């Protein structure tokens, strides 16, 4: 399980194996959506304090990578329980963005 480089399919398989071994079953889709919102909020908190004007409270230990991984975990679980192949979905998103935005950002003066 300590593979430093895994595919999205492998991540989906690992999450499914973990749920079947330790988690009893997936939470409902609605519960996972609420958990995802919570995890994104925790990520936002770290980003706001690391890159924004807010400061951390005394004793807080921010972990940006951990918060990102928590968001990814819930997304992977939601994909598994709803039958979404994240590898295929990712490829479709890249193709869509390439078609739609292949010159958009290069021509955006705000990015220069």
Task: Describe the protein in words.
The structure is a single chain. The chain has 112 residues and is mainly alpha-helical. The chain has a domain at 8-85: MazG-like (Helix Hairpins). Helices cover 66% and strands 0% of the residues. The protein is built from 4 helices and no strands. It has helices at 8-23, 29-51, 64-82, 86-101. Helix 1 (8-23) crosses helix 3. The radius of gyration is 18 Å and the shape is globular. The N and C termini lie far apart (42 Å).
Spatial gap, N to C terminus: 42 Å
The class by helix and strand makeup works out as mainly alpha
CATH superfamily of the domain at 8-85: MazG-like
- Named at the architecture level, the CATH assignment of the domain at 8-85 is Orthogonal Bundle
* CATH fold annotation of the domain at 8-85: Helix Hairpins
Poorly predicted residue ranges? none
Coarse shape? globular
Radius of gyration (Å): 18 Å
Summed up, the helix count is: 4
Q: What is the CATH class designation of the domain at 8-85?
A: Mainly Alpha
């Amino acid at each position: 399980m300590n593979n430093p480089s895994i595919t999205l399919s492998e991540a989906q398989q690992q999450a499914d194996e973990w749920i079947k071994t330790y988690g009893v079953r997936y939470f409902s889709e609605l519960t996972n959506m609420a958990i995802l919102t919570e995890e994104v909020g925790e990520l936002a908190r770290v980003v706001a304090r690391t890159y924004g004007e807010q400061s951390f409270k005394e004793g807080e230990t921010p972990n940006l990578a951990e918060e990102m991984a928590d968001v990814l975990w819930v997304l992977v679980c939601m994909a598994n329980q709803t039958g979404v192949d994240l590898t295929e979905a990712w490829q479709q998103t890249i193709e869509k963005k390439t078609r739609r935005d292949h010159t958009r950002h290069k021509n955006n003066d705000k990015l220069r």
